[in-house]
Structures
1.
Amino acid sequence: MVEPLLQVKDLVKYFPVYQRGILTRKKVGDVHAIDKISFRVGKGETLGLVGESGCGKTTTGKVVLELEQKDSGEVLFEGKDVHEELRRAPRAEKLALRRNMQMVFQNPYGSLDPRMTVFDIISEPFVIHKHIPRDEWQPRVYSLLKMVGLEEYHAERYPHEFSGGQRQRISIARALATEPKFIVADEPVSSLDVSIRAQILNLLEDLQKRTGISFLYISHDLSSVRQVSQHVAVMYLGKIFEYAPVNQLFDKPLNPYTMALLSAVPIPDPETKTKRIILPGDVPSPVNPPSGCRFHPRCPYAADICRAEEPPLRELGSDHLVACHFAEKFA
Ligand code: SF4
């Protein structure tokens, strides 16, 4: 098993819901965005985090990077508690930790300042972190542009002069400018054309091979998750339902929710026929999640125990964790 770079233990994040009166504001509940989730990302590995919209994937990425405060639980990076370090450590150590953990956002159109040149965008982390001497900025920016498949002359241009795929390359170059060990990539290809997606995914894989960087790759697109990940965690309504090495999860899923998600993935072989599992109803409200197993109102295998008891995430086979009372039945 690869040594962990990031470990998340029993992480919880709720968002309060308020009811407003004319002069009052009363708390009426909580959105259970993340509810006691645990996972780890190995050194030089990619963990794919998948699930339907609103399941808590993006909140997980933000809480891991401390862009949102956690309610409880731990996020350990190289064994150190990220949230504690960022609160208590001296400024130099905080900056070093921030340098090591970066994020690539979903929307390359909104995440780049249109008034800045590409040179200024990519060199901005040098100003903040002061880890590169001023006279090395230009060669470093050029080398980052080359690393992401762009040219030196692109440095003097503005974001609006680029295509969506090129803008995402600029975002990736900016994230790499701090020489991070870990990047949260939140739906990095979902706003791009299909033809450009493959290029960006290949770029992420190539960067990982060259630099040994680890990724938390957040996506609802299982095909791209399969391409770039070594392990996959499946989320539903703020919980991890399954965690396994990528091929094991795709070839032998042990949770009915994972099975339903996988049945919707198109297979590029006309000879292979798959049966699509259509789940009844919508995803329940995260303000008032169902009792027991949160998937029970939509699960074709639900029994009385599923309505009464929450299934723990337990190990079933090597490195394969499942939250389902009947997982053995599907093994
Ligand atoms: Fe379905 Fe029950 Fe398993 Fe939940 S615990 S996934 S409801 S069979």
2.
Amino acid sequence: MPLDIVVGTQWGDEGKGRIVDLLAREAQFVARYSGGDNAGHTVAAQGRLLRLHLIPSGILHPEAICALGAGMVVNPARLVSEIDELESLGIGASPTRLKLSSSAHILTPSHLALDGAEEAGRGSREIGTTRRGIGPAYADKAARRGLRAGAMRDPEEFGRLVEEQVRAAGRLLEGLYDLPAPDPAEARRAYAGYAERLRPHLADVGALTAQALARGENVLAEGAQGTLLDLDHGTYPFVTSSHPTAPGALLGLGVGARHLRRVIGVTKAFQTRVGAGPFPTELFGADAERLRGSGANPWDEFGTTTGRPRRCGWLDGVLLRYASRLNGLTELALTKLDVLTGLEPLRVCRSYLFSGGEAFDPPPDPEDLAACTPLYDTLPGWTETIGGTRSWGDLPPAARAYVEAVERIPGVPIRWISVGPEREQVIRRGEPV
Ligand code: IMP
């Protein structure tokens, strides 16, 4: 009855979709458990690049049932358009394959408007959100006035509830922020329509997960965002409003811990971040540009959801060790190793200089990260192209040494290494745990 969880160990954008794509080949049930359409996976399908924001990338594997768990906030307009896009490519996302938890929360046009208004109100303390309404939707959930997907069973009543919510939030937008509010009647009409479309997908995702596990199927929990964006354990307040970590998967799906087999952490071979917040190993100028790429390729370091250039830096081993502890990682996948080709020398942050001493853990107050000076190990680089390499032994010795240096930091084996953007550009290393 194995449950495997894939989590990002950094600030998101680690390339989790690639690893999920590999693991989903052996999974019968694939589910997202937190966040909303602030996430974005670029996946190749039918010769096209498809951007999925809500639907698990497991949908590309026809055998797998896919689910959106209770821990998510769902923009129904986006979900309907993703279903339509998949179906136009001949990829079935019918209610028999795609399930939406009745307990997931629904995002409305007011949440989108409030996200922008709150960001503007923060001034220089702006978080740099994706402006997808995520924070305000989770705020309504925590305040126990949220709209749950289960309400879509009665589209007309659901439309009425949305209208009420949009009207109430409109008073806030107009009164407090002096901003135009979304039209409540229009929201009612649109949301009644989404409910009509989506209600056949409603399900008890916790029960479905338990049934799949009881049948002995492989269940894959597909993380979005990354550990350092976790609401409780990330670099607060520069975080998202959900729990992208492994414990968040159990809660977000509604499944117990005893089924857990593997927790697979995905880490990029260097560090990136979009949005504001401390980033000790950040690079600037030509070094950062070298890691970021020009933006000409879809895999360059520009946000899938917002198109913003990502901030880039050396791999932060202190934060990787922290992510390993927090998630209980059993193994790692290292992505984008090929991007380091030609860089000389390479650096990996092993500890921080903080408050006059050497620290191997991040400071308890994440805002103090800004005052940490990274202490680096320096490693030799390599110049050989590695995109065609498919076996560990064929990697240049310096590339192998880099991988080994990274896995020594958390003491967790690296089982997969991606060496290019294509599906098959992956090196598998050793036997799965
Ligand atoms: P929000 O989730 O839109 O509220 O944004 C909060 C913070 O999380 C911002 O710094 C975003 O850039 C970041 N963020 C949210 N989702 C992702 C993601 O999928 N990848 C990378 N960063 C993300």
3.
Amino acid sequence: MKAMISPSILSADFAHLAKDIDMINRSEAAWVHIDIMDGVFVPNISFGFPVLKYVAELSEKPLDVHLMIVQPEKFIPEVKALGAHVMNVHYEACPHIHRVLQQIREAGMQPAVTINPGTPVALLQDIIREVYLVLIMSVNPGFGGQKFIEHSIEKVRELRELIDRTGSNALIEVDGGVNLETGARLIAAGADVLVAGNAIFAADEPEEMIKMLMNAH
Ligand code: DX5
Ligand code: ZN
């Protein structure tokens, strides 16, 4: 099965963002992955809405927005204003996750929930029918270029089982340390969407790498 690819611009050249977004526009990538950090939920800060406004204007691909922030529901209007396709919030950042997912849907975006490496798939049981997508973090969030956590493969299999058992249509996305080798195994385990930062932007031919990741086996 072919995977959808969502290149993470966290690994792009911030001095020449337009050039990297053009590359994504020309490529076979499905979406653009946007990592928003607050220095509280994760130990790093990336970029905020004033910068993303320009990214959104330049991108011809739907935006896959991954919020690594506390109280992400506060920013539903801002994410909507970007024209986002998917709004990803962390399970660990939302005590009222069910309500937040509904608010995202009511705002006209596709609701997605993200789980950290230390959060079990089983906790998604009661919200799996409410989400368009589940994002499994295969590194601890905050930085690009980290080593893939092996247990993530097992989590993808478990999530595939949960989705099949409950009749949910949720897509499975994986983020962190994805390359041709881990990507192939994630696709085999049931992943639908692969996020990749370093593997794409450090490649000699990023467009070609996107194509190879799509077809990794
Ligand atoms: C990590 C971010 C990822 C990151 C992935 O906190 O959520 O999207 O950019 O980067 P790589 O693919 O380099 O691990
Ligand atoms: Zn991400």
4.
Amino acid sequence: MNARPLLCVVGLAMACFAASGPAKAQKFDQLAQTPPLGWNSWNRFACNVSEQLIRETADAMVASGMREADYQYVNIDDCWQGGRDAQGNIYPDPRRFPSGIKALADSLHAKGLKLGIYSDAGEKTCGGFPGGRGHEFQDARTYAAWGVDYLKYDWCNTEGMNAASSYATMRDALHAAGRPILFSICEWGENKPWEWAARVGHSWRTTGDIFPCWNCEVGHGTWSSLGVLRILDRQGPLRKYSGPGHWNDMDMLEVGNGMGEDEDRAHFTLWSMMDSPLIAGNDLRGMSDSVRHTLTNREVIALGQDPLGVQAFRALADGDLEVWAKPLANDEWAVAFLNRGEVTLRNSYDWLRYPIGDGQTNRNVDAGRLEYHWTELWTHATGSTAHALELTLPPHAISVYRLAPVAGAKARP
Ligand code: GLA
């Protein structure tokens, strides 16, 4: 009989610990098996956060149908902090969050939602509020006691610090605190987190901040924020690092923050196909029908939530027309046609002529051997790969087809 469990049971916890060695440092493994869905305050509200905003956003998430479409996290970004007390415990700004974070988390949980919070690996956050440095274990215990479910951890004011070990410290702190908290790494891709963060966090930002534009870059001195295509074009080599529990994060969504409907849909479709977290960044309380419709397109959301967890890739490029493809479970595929440019594209796409192949997973859309039925996920048009596709794509528009092999269809000669 093995004596060790018995020792543990009779309460000799230290002896038990000494006999089995230190616990292996780890993250909470079962979280984010598919990319997280939620909302974050930063893109639309910056520092204007309050418990009223969070409560109203949670209500809007329910009323708009977003919760039904699987959005779960309501995340407070920077500027929620009041300071640290004499014992070093972090507390929220009492003016903005008079009821405290625990009460807020409880009210979200009662609605079937989860609460996210923000901090930073440095001494101060990007907004100049107290960061986690030197308080990692204490803060993690506070977040766990409050009932926090998601922590976005930023990288401002970290001169001289090592990213991999700093984030590993916070991972260990969260694990030691015992509450499963999704750990969202936000160091903007500066230290190649895709190479080390799969064992540390559940997602990592791959670029600097997003901006609600199609293809712009807005300079801020030492850094610049990036439009949709600028972020998309930086993802190619990162594909192989993404998978269940550890995702490339292309930053929070700008749907509903000023781009056109076609641009919003293309942005949303691409982020889902790339298995990025889908964290809405608009004001959910006053959404137009068009924005709500975009954010709650469950068939598009299902592409990112597919259990295979394989990020899309650029399969073909012909001038401003690009074809993006994503293998799905059960030999299905998502294939998107993107018009990057400024003029409407009219094109006939012959599935037989352009087979799509994925070297990473050894899967192919081989319409020459197999027939697929398709559904376009914005218009719900249907068809078959036996016929060429007639495409009309306005500027900055996307159309996305879900392909399913026809049951019992014989391979073509
Ligand atoms: C950084 C992050 C943003 C946001 C702000 C808050 O810029 O990348 O997403 O969290 O800080 O100050």
